[in-house]
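Now for one record.
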Amino acid sequence: MGKQIRLGWVSLAAAAALALAAGVITAPAAYTADDPVEVIVNGIDVRSDNMNGLTYKGLGLLSCNSTSNLLMDYKAENPGRYWQLIRVLFGGKDPLINHVKVEMGSDTNTSTGSDPATMRTPDELADASRSPGFQLAADAKTVNPKLKVSILRWEMPEWVQNEWDKGTGTDEMYKWYKETILDAYEKYGYMVDYVDPDKNETRNPDEAFIKWYKNAIVTDTDFANPRYGIPADKQQKAKKAYHNIKIMASDENNTHHIGPSVLSDAELFGIVDAVGYHYNTDDRLEGDADSDTYQPYTKLATGNNKYNEDKEVWYSEGTASFGHTEYRVNNTEGPNGASTGIGGVQSALDLANRSVKSYANSKRTHYIFQPAIGSFYEGAQYSHKELVSARDPWSGYLHYDAALYVMQHFTQFARTGWENDTNTAGIWRTVPEASYSGVSGTENVDGSNGAPSYMTLADPRKKDFSTVVVNDSDQPKTYRIKAENMRLGSDPTMEIWETRGADAGQAYDANFKHLADEIRPGGDGFYTYTVKPRSIVTLTTLDKSRDKATKQRLPKSWDRTVLDTDATGKKRNTRDNILYADDFGYEEEGRVQVGTADGARKVSRPYLMSRGNQPRYMVDQTGAWEVGKDARGDNVLYQYMDQSMKDTGAWNRHTPNTTVGDFRWENYRATVDVSFPDPAGGLAALGVRQQKGMAISDAAYNVRIRPNGAWTFYEYGTAVKTGTVAASSSYRLAIEAKGATITTFIDGKAVSTYQDPTPETEGRVKLGSDFYKTAFDNLKVEKIDGYTPYAGAQIDNMAGSVAYEGAWSRKNAFGDAMDWYRSTSTSTAAGASFTVPFTGTGIDIIGGNDGTAVLDVYIDGKPVAKDAKTAAVDKRLATYTLRGLRDGKHTAQFVLKSGKIALDAFNAIPGDVNGPVDTTAIRSTLDRIGSPTQADYTADSWALFDSALSAAKTAVSGQKDLDVLGAEQIKNRLDEAYKRLVRKDATAE
């Protein structure tokens, strides 16, 4: 089983000596920060015979924990944008991503959410189409047939877990793996290339099971079982492909146990094809140089070990850049409050440095992003750490981050992938002797020390090479590169491709992946180039100057239009009273294209079949949410995870819940029919205005009801009111949220009204249950007359359009996932100000605040509020709201009078409101104050009053874009401005 171990073992001492000769290098002894860095690319060091360890495999992505959940909705609702994404990430002659790794789900939350279990019971037929990762791989293969697919588990379904806990679950585990693998093979035509049989992020690799599992694969002869669905004429082909599955081990988190184990155990060495670990760039450095615990991963990759054979070494899970690069360039994290540009900790350049350092220090030639695509709703754990943001399938919005350009500096200047058995694929080799990293840190690395950071990739024929250099410091860095024993041909010209931030007056992306220079070696044979601060360059002997793919720009983002549909839930309609609806029948949906035949073709499948009966637009946090037939044969949404399935492991333990909708929804009424088909019991929940978190209690307002009629209304997880209605097998639940007033309805009757003194004003809808099969149907989200239904554009605190004056700290590194794009701007300096251009009738200041900030507010240069108080609120909530302006373009200026203000984002409020608004209170105030004379009052106090008076008169004259909240604020501002009028004669006294 596994690879044959080569004959001709070498001694441990000889292996250690070979390891040192193979690039286990340190910085040049004479190195100082100002010295040029000399790099010798010697053809002797280009090991064309090393087919596994030093071949540069490029990049991979991990699909798991709901991170890919909304991609299937993109494919159905905006197929053009979806297939464009597939081409950008996986297509072309130099693909960015060569590998899709699928973490099999168990309906439990193991990070940002849950992925469906492919088998919820031992008798259920496996359904790989439930898991978006398997389908993503199938679609990616249509543009990259050589793409690798791997699987692993974190937790497992309860029927497996129950036996595993007894110590007798190997057969159950194998059945789950095998039937899932064969179902993907039957549906999509590809065989999984790698399996990690061990638990994800283990700290104690299960070597016995790895051996058992490999033996089970190679000795398995059963491929005719009808459960697998493989036609008789394809069973032999399936058997051969199945027997060729490779073993990856062991996806440890930070620990380094599997490397020494593989080196010390000849049987394990023969079984394991690839080793990897997470979130640590460094090798293990324990014991003597010739011991298995000293640089084991370097020994494995270089082949300089007692077996004289090289193995693949993966950075098998790592982060992408944090936040959006176009926002983080406006940070103040550099020296003396300067920006770090596209660099800094957790930036695009950090990602590049991490890739270089993980190769230089532990010879890892494959980096897998968790995730590369963020296709789950923001506000879940680990938001905003991705290369592509894909969270609004109804709009087609996709954000391609500049970190993609940075990573293309590795993948577009080399032939990446896996070498074939005959060593003729031409995959470029990494060159240890011409690679080095001196940056600090082992995960979130810091290149501000100016130390060298470079990685060299070379054609195995020695005809070309590329050296990628990262300079994440504030000083330029000169590199001198010399080729020896290479066959570069008659034209030794080297192209310099560069990515860095914009210069003053340039567009944001002006310097992204562009040809910066062409150079030739000097008389001494060295190419000399000075790398600018906060930049990445690829110095390559390839001629890419006329290559269209290399010069291709990433697609532009579309507008993030709010989810506002007609009654079908399919078509956009901003004029009716429906925000969204789902009856789970999906008659309005057409067929969906799916990659099949191992990428050879696409087929068109019915909507629900194409996605394993997963509902539209829903992101599951816990539970088995799937569309099925009720007793009448109609489609309903079921939560299937019952008492028999509930005790499987989970990182984040919650009762089942799922989320749907737009984070900008504000004032709306959500309704859903619930029923309880499980005779053992049940509970159904409906929540509104969810912004963050992964439990039903993270919906700001939620009601829960049981079959006996007992119900409870909650603000988050705190019970506010309880009651009982007549017991029933079904109910219609509704919550109406308008401003601070939250009303709960059961079967059309109001049972609770709650006034929240510090309301959450925006958020999505949640559905929830207990661990019983529960049915949901006829979900409807409706607008409320007189209230603006949703915010419009969101403006980040780091957006270039937002201007700051005074002392501000603007941070992105180590930002909180609950802050939009992990950035905040903070000030405690009296007189500090920020100015925000927006379009609409109002604006909200979003950010976690302690309520000490006092603000003066100006709109279009005119005062609208003096000494305005802010609210003490959690992250993602509004600390200050302004309403009642005329719909249009405005500029808001806020001046900090005292206290502390933390800014996360600004939400603009559009003027789209249905129904008339009562302005009686404004008229009464106008009548009460009469007609003060301007000449009697000071200029400052009159300016504020005049602004409020003008807004009040406009409101009562029939302002069409006015809503209830705007009318309330106009009245309150007029009262306050009138109170603040200061008579001139009073100041004279």
Remarks:
- The longest strand covers residues 888-898.
- Residues 1-31 have pLDDT under 50 and may be disordered.
- The longest helix spans residues 170-188.
